[in-house]
Design goal:
The protein has 183 residues and is of the alpha+beta class. The chain has seven helices and seven strands, in the order βααβββαβαββααα. The chain has one domain: Aminopeptidase (3-Layer(aba) Sandwich). The protein has a seven-stranded mixed β-sheet, with helices on both faces. It starts with a strand and ends in a 5-residue tail after the last helix.
């Protein structure tokens, strides 16, 4: 896993069209993905196998909340932990930036994706009729990464999310650099 490169915008956009935006007008075009790759408040992450992108995720970071815009894994690589690793990496970036709430939308009919997010700790918040271009409903889901901090202390939550040696892991450095955080 690594941050996406601008030259990969077309590959990511095509995967979005095929795996996420099927049946809808294409909104995550190469131009839009490239803009996300360049944006200082967005991480575009790719999972690669033998040089090929097999999964990707795009997360925007605000002042108080992060939003998972897209996450997809190619069918042959599903149920192998790729999606989990992508999401956990982005959640760790949010925590490094001091953001503990994450929101996302998923197609209301996509029970597989909803089950995945629930296993990852996300909870349904509200159903949004016609969310996808007036054609399809969405389920908004959210996760509060600080929730356990009340029970176990912030340090314990950070250690659990980031791992005990997070200062030495490259994702921490990449996350901090991508969010313009001084180390």
């Amino acid at each position: 896993m690594r941050l996406a490169r601008p030259a990969e915008a077309s590959s990511i956009a095509n995967l979005s069209r095929e795996l996420i935006e099927y049946g809808l007008r294409w909104r995550w075009t190469p131009t839009r993905v490239a803009a996300s790759i360049r944006a200082p408040d967005v991480n575009v992450l790719v999972a690669c196998v033998r040089g090929n992108i097999v999964g990707f995720a795009i997360m925007r970071y605000g002042d108080d909340e992060a939003h998972l815009d897209l996450l997809a894994v190619a069918p042959p690589y599903r149920r192998a932990g790729v999606g989990r690793q992508l999401l956990q990496w982005l959640e760790k970036c949010a925590v490094v930036a001091g953001i503990f709430r994450i929101a996302l939308e998923v197609r209301a009919e996509n029970e597989g994706a909803q089950a995945f997010y629930q296993r990852m700790g996300y909870r349904p918040l509200v159903q949004l009729s016609g969310y996808y271009q007036g054609i399809e409903a969405a389920l908004r889901m959210g996760r509060d990464l600080s929730r356990r901090s009340v029970e176990h202390g912030v340090e314990g939550t950070l250690a659990k999310l980031l791992g005990p040696d997070f200062y030495h892991q490259t994702f921490f450095l990449d996350a901090a650099r991508s969010l313009n955080i001084r180390i």
